[in-house]
Amino acid sequence: MLFGHAGNGGLRINVAVGSMDDAEHVTGAVLRLVAELDGSVGAERGIGVDKVRWLGLARPPEEIDVMRRIKAALDPRGTLNPGVMLG
User: Fold this and answer.
1) 81 in the Ramachandran plot: left (φ > 0), alpha (ψ -120 to 50) or beta?
2) Any idea where the domains of the chain sit in the sequence?
3) Tens digits of residue pLDDT in 25-66
4) What span, in angstroms and rounded, lies between the C-alpha atoms of 70 and 67?
5) In the chain, where does DSSP find H-type helix?
């Protein structure tokens, strides 16, 4: 099932599968294709918890490191969403 936002041209993809193993396989295949086409694995609000493991497909390590440093500067005690993504 594809759906999106007319204003920004973004598409969201939902795929119904039979098991969590199938879901992981399908998610990986879709997000690798998205990255190959210079798409984003996240949205304008950021990356979701379920997709954080795929962030490296669309963002280089240096950019992810900058994200970690910004998070540490703004949340030095790690109280905002502890351990969710950039902990």
Assistant:
1) left
2) 2-59
3) 888 898 899 889 888 877 666 777 778 888 888 889 999 899
4) 5
5) 20-36, 61-74
